Fold these 2 entries.
Entry 1:
Amino acid sequence: MSKIDQSKIRNFCIVAHIDHGKSTLADRIIEKTGLLTSREMQAQVLDNMDLERERGITIKAQTVRTVYKAEDGEEYIFNLIDTPGHVDFNYEVSRSLAACDGAILVVDAAQGIEAQTLANVYLALDHNLDVFPVINKIDLPSAEPDRVKDEIEDVIGIEAQDAPLISAKNGIGIEEVLEQIVKKIPAPKGNPDSPLQALIFDSLYDPYKGVIIFCRIVEGTVKKGTKIKMMATGASEEVVEVGYFGAGQFIPCDELSAGMVGYITASIKNVKDTAVGDTVTDADRPCSEPLPGYKKVNSMVYCGLYPADGAKYPDLRDALEKLQLNDASLNYEPETSIALGFGFRCGFLGLLHLEIIQERLEREYNLDLVTTAPGVIYKVYKTNGEVIELTNPSNLPDPSEIEYMEEPIVSAEIMVTTEFIGSIMELCQERRGRYLGMEYIEGTRALLKYELPLNEIIYDFFDALKSRSRGYASFDYELKGYEQSKLVKLDILINKEEVDALSFIVHADSAYERGRKMCEKLKDEIPRHLFEIPIQAAVGGKVIARETVRAMRKDVLAKCYGGDITRKKKLLEKQKEGKKRMRQIGNVEIPQKAFMSVLKLDDGK
Amino acid sequence: MKKLSVYIHIPFCVRKCFYCDFLSAAATEETKQQYVDKLIEEIEREAENYREYEVVSVFFGGGTPSVLKTEDTERIMRVLRGNFTIVQSAEITSEVNPKTADFAKLKAYHEMGFNRLSIGMQSTDDRELRALGRIHDYQDFLDVFEAARRAGFQNLNVDIMSALPGQSVKSYEKTLEKVLQLQPEHISAYSLIIEEGTPFYEWFGEEENQRQRTGECVQLPNEEEERRMYELTEKMLEKKGYHRYEISNYAKEGYACRHNQAYWTRQDYVGFGIGAASLIENRRFQNKSDLNQYLAGEVEKEEQIQLTKKECMEEFMFLGLRLTKGVEKEQFFEQFSLPLEQVYGDVLKKQESLGLLVNGEKNVYLTKKGLDVSNLVMAEFLLDE
C-alpha cells in the first residue's frame, strides 16, 4: 500500500442544532462517496447504538473514513467525525472537534439559527476550525434560504453567500457539499517522521480486542509493533493493530501517519490506562510534550444508582467502569443507602445524559436499576469554616452546623419566536430565573438571556420550554458559578421512618409544593399493607405535607372454577414476584419504582 | 379402591351474563346435541384409565348444565354409570339456572340420580339481576327452589353475590334475609370480580372506574360498602347456623360440598368436556378450550404437567388454607415425608406474628383476618427455587 498523501486528507465534523439534519447529511456523504452502496445503507449509518436510532439523537461521537473522487480528478480521504447535538453532550463535541481541521455547519432553511447552532459554532471556532455553512431542508415550503444566509452572516459572522443549498433527506446539493469540503477544509499538517504524538479522542472496550483507542495522529507514525506509551497514565504496550473506521466496522491498515484519524489496539486490558484526552507517543522515541488535551468537564447532575438486586452490585461496578471508558464525563463513587443498600453516587452532564447512561446500563449490561432523585452539587459552608461539596442530600450536616449554602447558577440563552416571549419569561420567572436581557434577531425572533439555578432546570425545564413554545424554543446553558441560596433538605418519612434515598435539597420556597407532590406520588406507588401507612414530607423535623395509604382489609379470590387452579397460582406468583421487587423500610415494603417516580414529579401538571 | 371426583363441563347458556368469563356461550340445539355426543365418546374413551377408581362425587358445571334437554343429561348420566363405579353415597350435583328448569326437569334429574342442585340466584333484587345480565328474576328462582324441594332434593345450594353494580348494603342484607328464610343446606357467597374480557370490564374497568350505562348511572359499591357486605355475610349466615367451611362457602352441619373439597384437598379428579381440568396422582392436565376442535373429534389435550414435590407442597398449602379448618400437619408429613414446620417454619412464624394464621397442634389455619387477605398469605407459601 502506497503512502497516503497528507494533502489529500480532510478531517472534519458536522455541527448543528438538534434536528437540523446533521446525521442525515452524514449518511448522504457516506453514500455519495461510494464506500457503501445504497443497499448497504441503513438509515443513519453513524448512529449505531439502538438507543440513538430510537431517540433520533447522536450520543456518542462516531467516526467514518470514506474516499471521494473530486472534480479535480484526485481522490481524497474524508474522515467524518459525527458529533452529538444535545446541550448535555458539549463535552463529546469538543473531544471530536480536537480531532478535526474543519467543520460543516448545518442550518435548517426554515428555522434558521438556534441556540445550539450558536453554541456549537463557537465551540468549533474556539478549536480554530475552519467552518463553512450548509443550508439544509431547502425543499420545505417554509424554507427561506436567503434570510438564513443573512442570519448566519449577521449573527455568527461567517461568509454564507455561497453556502450549498441542500436537502440531505432527498439527496439534493450533496455534490456541492463534497466539493466545498475539499476546497474549504484545510489538509492536516504534521510530519510523519517526527516522534509520535497522537490524541486519544475516544475509546471503546471490545471483548476480543481489548481497549480500542480512537486517535488523531498529530505528528509521527504508528504501526503494528510500535511500543506506545500513554503520557498521562504511563501505561506502555506494543501495538497489535492499527486501522481506520469503515461504516460500523474497523478496517486494519499498515500504519497511521501524521494527519490521519484511526484506531490502535495494544492488548490493553485495564480500561483506566487509556484516558480520553491523553497523548499517545512512541515509548522508545517519545515526543517532548503532550498535546493540550481537553479541559476536564465537571458533572453537573448527581444521583444514586443502585442495582435492583443487591447481588448485582459488582456487575454494576464493572458496567460503570466500562461505560466510563468511552464516556469520560461520567463519574461515580460507591455509596450506601439504608433503604437501597450498596450502590453508586454518579455524576452526569445533565438529565438526558443520566437517562442515557441508565438506559445503556439496563440494555447493554442487563441491569435492573433503582435511581434516586437527581440533584446538583451544593456548597455547604459550615460554621467551623469547613466547606463541603454536597452531592448526596443524606450527607447534609445538621442545620446548626451550617452557616449558609450555595447552589450552582447557569447562564442560559433561549431562542424563541417573539409570540412566545411572554410565556417563556413566565416560565423562567417560576424557576427563579434572573432576567439579563433580550436581543431581537431578524425581527421575528429573540434571544433571551437568563441566569437560572441549575436545580430548577435539571428536571423538566426542557420539556416545559418546548410545550410553552409549541416546540419552537431552543435552549443552551453553561455553568456560571455559585450563589448563596435559601436551601432546605426535604425528608420523606414512610410510616414515621425517614427514607434516605428519597431526601433531596430544594429551595425553601418550593419545599411545600414539592413535598406535597412527593407524598401524592408515593401514595399511588406504595401498595396497601395490613396497616395504615402515613407518608410525610418534613423539613428540619417539621412535617409540611402528609398522605395516607389506607390499610388493606380484603384481598381474596372468591371463586376457583372447575378445579382449574392455574389462574389462581399465576395470581399468587405475581403477588410474590411483586414482593421480591420491593424494598423493606421498617415494616413497609416499597416498590422500586416508587423511588423513581419522584423523577417524574411534574407529570401532568 | 382409589377415590375419584368427576367434573362434566357444559359450555352452553341461554345468554352470557355481563360479568361472566367462564368458558361458555349460547349455542344452537344442534351444537348442543353434537357436544353431548362427543362428551359421551370422551367419557367412554377415557374411562379405562380409571378402572381402579370409585367415584365419590360428580359435578355438572358450566355454563348452564340445565340448558340441555333432559334426555341429553340422562344420556350422559347413563354413560357415566355404565363406565364408572359410582358409589351409593356419591354426591351428584348439577348447576341450575332458574330460567332453564321446571318441576318436570328437576324431577327427572332426581330420578336419574342427582342428589344436589346448585342454583344460580345471585340476588333477590330484580334490578340487580338485570344489571348483571341474568336471564331470570327473583320469582323464577323462587319457583325453581320450590320445584326442587317438591322433586325431592334435600341438598340445595344457592349462589349469592355481593359488590354488584347498583347494590347497596341494605339491598344485600335483604338478599341474605330472603335466602335464609328458604333455608337451603348450602350457600355460596361470592364478591363480584371484574374480569378482563367481560362487558363489565369495559364498563367498570379494573377498579373504581365507573361508567354510565344505558342512561342510568349504575355504580359499583365503594370499598367501605363492599367491606360491610362481606362482613354482613359471615355474621348473618353464622347466626343462622351456617358454618363457613371455606372462604366463600357456608353450609349447615354435614352439607359441605364434597366435590369442591376434593379440589381444596387435592384429591384425584377428572374433568370431561372442553377446558375441563384434571388432577390425577399429581399430574395436572386439561382439555383444549376450542369447541369446534372438540366437535371435530380432536382429542388432544393441553400439555400435561407432572407436579414436582415443591409444587405439590405449595398447592397443598394454598389450596388447603382456603378451608377454615386449614391443613393437617400429619397429612403434610404423610404426603411429603417432611414436617410442615421444616419446610414452612419461617412463613408460619411470620404470618402468625401478623395475626393472619394459627399454627395449632394438629392444624394450620387462617384467622378471620387471614381469610380476608388470603391472597397475601397464600403467596407466602410459594417456595423459592
Entry 2:
Amino acid sequence: MAYVDSAKSIPLSRATQLLRGRTTFLLGGLFLCFFITLALGGETFAPNPPNQIDLLHRLSAPSLTYPLGTDHLGRCILSRLMAGTALSLGTALTTAGLILAIALPVGLLSALCKGWVDAVLMRIADIFLAFPMLVFALAIIGYLGASLTSAVFGVALAWWPSLARLVRTLTLEAASKEYVLASRQCGQKPLSIIRRHILPQILPPLLVVLSLEMAGLLLVLSSLSFLGLGAQPPAAEWGAMLNEARPFFAERPSVVLAPGIVIIFAVLSFNLVGEGIRFQLDKRKPYRW
Amino acid sequence: MKQFVFKRTLSGIPTLFGMTLIGFLIIGLTPGDPIEMELRRLGVSFTAEQVEALRVEYGLDKPLIQRYFIWLLDLFRLDLGTSIASGRPVLELFKEHLPITATLSVLAFVSSLALSLVLGTITAVSQRTSVSTSLYVLTMFLVSVPSFWLALFLLAVFALGLGWFKLLQFGNAQDLILPVITLTLGNAAVMSRLVRERIIAVMSEDYIRLAITKGLSRRAILGRHVLKSILPPLITNWAISFGSLLGGSVIIENIFNLPGLGQLALQAIAERDFAILQAYLLFMGLVFFLANFAADLTNHWLMPQLKEDDHGVR
C-alpha cells in the first residue's frame, strides 16, 4: 500500500487548507458574532433612525449622512439594514424553534411508542414530505393570509417532517443504550427517562443540525418576504426591503442589491460554520488525483 | 421488477390519498363560511334562510367526510372547480400557465444536472489545482445566494448594463434564457455539493484503493466504479431537486414576469382564490410524487439488490 500512502501524504495546497476546517469555522463564527451584535444593538449603532423619511433625498447615492444611499422614501438604507437584523434573524430563529417544537414530540413519540403510533406518525410525515417544500409553505400562507406569522407557520409546517425523522432515528439509538434499559427496569417513569437520559443524548446533535438548517430557513423566509408573503412594509426585514425597492430597480439597482448582499453574508456565515463542523468531523481520507 | 412496481404503487396510494386529504382539509378548515364570504364579496344583501338554501344547493350542509368524497370524485373527473376571481374553470387556467413552468423547470433541471456532475467531480477528485479550489468557493457562495438576488443581479448586469435582454417582459423563447440560468446556477451548486460528498465517500473505500493500486486508469475508475455507486443516492436527490425547482420557479416567474403556474398561485394568494391554490398544491404534489416514484423505479432497475429505504432522505 506504499503507493496509496505516498499519494495521501502529498500536502494540500495552502489555499485549500486555509479554506477548510478551522478557518472556515472561525470565519463563519466571526460573521455570526457580527450579526448577533447587530441584532442586539442594531438601532443604537445605526447612523440614522431607520424609519425617518427624507423625501428631498429619495434614491440618493451614498454620502456621509447616508453611507449606503437612501431608498424610494429617502430612508437610510444602512440604518434599515442594521435595524432589520433583529427581525430577520429572529424570524429564522423562531421558525427553527417552532420546527423543533413539532419535530421533537413527534419523533420521541414515534421512536418510544413504536407499533401503530410510529406507523401513523411516520405516514403523516411522509404525506407532508410528499409536497415540494416551498409549494406547501405557499399553500399554508395562502390560506392564512400573507403575514410574517403565516410565513413562519407555513415554513415550519413544511419543514418539520425531515427533522422529526432525525429525532426518531437519534431516539431509537439513544433508547437502546444499556443504562436506559436498566433505568426502565428500575421502574423510572417514562417522562423522567426522556428528561434524564434521552434528551441529553439527542439534543446536542439535534441543535447542531438545526443551526445548520438556519441557512436554509433564512433563504426561504427572505424569499417569502421578497414575494410580499412574509414581513410586510414598513418593517425593515431584509427580504421585505428588497420587495419594497423593486419598482425602483431600473432607476437605481443598488437599492435592491444592497439588502441582498446582507442576506448572502448572513446565510454564508451559517454555511461556513456548518462546513467547518463537517470538515472537523470528517475522518475519511479519499484518494485524490 | 414487476413485483417492485406493484409494491411501490401500492405503498404510494395511501400517500396520495393523504395528499388529497390535506389539500381538501386546508379549504375545509378555512375560517369563515364560503357562501357568506362570497355573498359579501358580491355585495348582495342576504338572509340566514337564503344562506342556508345556498349551503344545501352547494352541498355544504353535508358532513365533512361526505364532502371530501364528493370532491374526490370531481377530482378524478378532472373537475378542479372554478376560480372565484376570474370565473373561469381552474383546469383551463392551468392549461394556459403550465407550459412556461414546465419548460422552465425541465430546462433548468437538465442543465443543472449536467453542471452539478461536472462541478462535483472536479471539486471532489482534484484538490491541488486552483481551478477546483475556486470552483469549490464558487459553489459555497452560490448556495448562500437567494435566487431572487441572483436573478436581480443578472438582470442588472445583462439587461440594465449590457442591454442584451429586455427588462421584465415576456414575449418569446429568448426571454427564458436568464430565468433558466438563474435557476440552474443556484440548483447546480446545491446538487454539486452532494455529488462531491458522494464521490469523496466512494473514493475513501478500500476497493477504489485496490483499483488504483491495480493500475486502473482514471477514466475506468470514475466511469466503472465511482459512477455506479454514486448514482442511486444521486437519483433520489435529483427527484428532490426537481421538487425544489418546481417551488423555486415561483420566485423566478415573479421576478421575470413569466406567466407560469407560480404567478397564477401568487395571484391566487393575493385574491384568496382557494380553488386555484388547492389545485396548485395538488398538482405540484402529484408531479413531485411521480418524480420520486420514477427515481425509485430507476434505482431498482439499476440495482435490484438495493434495499428500498422509504425514500426518507431530503
